[in-house]
Design goal:
The chain is an alpha/beta fold. The protein is 40% helix and 14% strand.
Length: 340
Amino acid sequence: MQDVRKEARELMKGYCRVCKECDGRACAGEVPGMGGLGTAASFKGNVEALADYKLRMRTIHDCSEADPSTSVLGYDLSIPVFAAPIGGVSFNMGGKVSEEDYIMSKLKACDANGIVGCTGDGVPPFISEAGFDAIKAVSGNGIPFIKPWEGEEFFEKIEKAAATGCTTFGIDIDAIGLITLAKMGRPVAPRGVERLKALIERIPGKVLLKGIMTPEDAQAAVEAGAAGIVVSNHGGRVLDHTPGTAHVIAEIAEAVNGEIAVLVDGGVRTGVDVLKMVALGADAVMIGRPFSIATMGGLEDGASKYIQQLTGQIKSAMVLTGCETIDDVNLNIITDVLGQ
């Protein structure tokens, strides 16, 4: 991975520094780019919130080999990870790799390694079009995320997404705060429960709503008919000074009470981070920036290496916390920084 990161640093110069610790400090306020909005307090808060939890190491048990596989939203996953829908290579990542090569490489790596990649949406149509082509190339094994555009544009994109063979459709409702869309003259408006329900009823598959940060919104997503949610503050790119997602995932999972799938993103970098989020109540996690860096730096091979690194880290952490399967991962394996 060192060579992959070195190449990514060269290709993403001016947009991402590929820091040793991706914590939002060096790139604060750099949006467009890979930074966090404003002071980047939300970006930094995601990383800091995860760091507040520690794993309780256990060495006296009979678990010598861990199985990190799971099933979420009908997908059989080798590890509880989805590659998050990050796009816009030209204005977020330096543009030295094409949107098409980037997203195709990421989704093929995910498919080859037993997980699922998500694709993004944006004002330039080539972002969503490249994503649709990539999902088709992996026989529908991907989740297209589409912004809640006004009018028929939304449903036209849903129709194109459905033609890829996908079974789940994502709506990133947190796009209402995206500065990149506002700068392009295409801001996205929020929608209430009834309007979201009307959208979901017309979508030919399961719907995943991304951008949930409170129990109230989680319960509203259930009411609207979503099959799942993503607890997310959009990587700290839409609102400054939100809590880190690791600090809110437990209460949101409790509010949902197993009625729908609960995914989470924000600050997840390693397999240990994945395990913490699952212990806090997530069914799976989405990982964004690290996948972009790995894909930019090594295309399909780079993304594959990152997935394999995550897999090794998750298996090791499971054995050292006495977890034979993902079902064994719960609040009993973590403690907060105060030892509680």
